[in-house]
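User: Reviewer 2 asked us to show a designed sequence for the structure in our supplementary figure. I'm pasting the structure tokens here. Could you produce the per-position amino acids so we can include them in the response letter?
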């Protein structure tokens, strides 16, 4: 289902009695100007009054937080912008403010999500391999049911550098590697001679053990 349709279904079936309306006006240069407002709820749960007491920014942040809290899958910044009737840059700013307030939002190649949505058994594995072995490493991890949450390196000058990944399937790995290739991006592990760390999430210890054994059979170093 398209994001906008999923958003409408969520919003109107939530039983909260609130509707977010993107009111678009045209001003100088023919550019749209957007705002989000709350209208009267059907129920009496007090949320309408809470929204009335909020600034436009606070309402946007409340809607972003509620969407992320009730949907475990990542959502793109473009989709949040469409939902709220603002630009993607506004969404980036709101997400940054929510992070500063302590909301555990992470940015992955597939969009924003809450770290709590990844809650499960997790550990950090230390590995080393050549750049061209990256797809094999990631395929092996997701094929064994693991989620590759991030990648980290210990840089001698900048300290710990990390990037969120949230890779759960071969398709996720394909999309990530395609983005790396198309953008001619440098892998973080290239900064540390192939040494890097992954936070991985697993449902059973045997899955982790089998994934590590499979990577070693491929010639990928995994350190105890």
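Assistant: Here is a per-position design you can include in the supplement:
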């Amino acid at each position: 289902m398209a994001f906008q349709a999923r958003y409408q279904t969520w919003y109107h079936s939530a039983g909260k009695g609130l509707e977010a309306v993107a009111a678009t006006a045209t001003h100088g240069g023919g550019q749209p100007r957007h705002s989000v407002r709350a209208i009267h709820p059907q129920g009496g749960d007090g949320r309408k009054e809470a929204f009335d007491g909020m600034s436009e920014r606070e309402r946007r942040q409340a809607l972003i937080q509620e969407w992320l809290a009730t949907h475990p899958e990542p959502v793109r910044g473009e989709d949040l912008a469409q939902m709220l009737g603002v630009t993607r840059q506004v969404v980036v700013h709101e997400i940054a403010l929510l992070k500063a307030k302590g909301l555990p939002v992470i940015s992955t190649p597939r969009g924003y999500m809450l770290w709590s949505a990844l809650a499960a058994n997790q550990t950090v594995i230390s590995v080393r391999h050549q750049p061209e072995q990256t797809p094999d490493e990631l395929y092996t991890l997701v094929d064994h049911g693991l989620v590759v949450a991030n990648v980290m390196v210990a840089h001698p000058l900048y300290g710990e550098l990390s990037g969120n990944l949230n890779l759960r399937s071969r398709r996720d790995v394909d999309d990530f590697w395609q983005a790396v290739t198309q953008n001619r991006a440098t892998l973080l592990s290239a900064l540390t001679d192939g040494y890097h760390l992954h936070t991985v999430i697993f449902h059973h210890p045997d899955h982790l053990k089998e994934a590590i054994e499979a990577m070693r059979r491929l010639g990928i170093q995994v350190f105890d």
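For the response letter, you might also mention the following. The helical segments are 3-13, 47-52, 56-70, 77-84, 88-100, 134-143, 170-182, 205-217. Residues 56-70 form the longest helix (15 residues).
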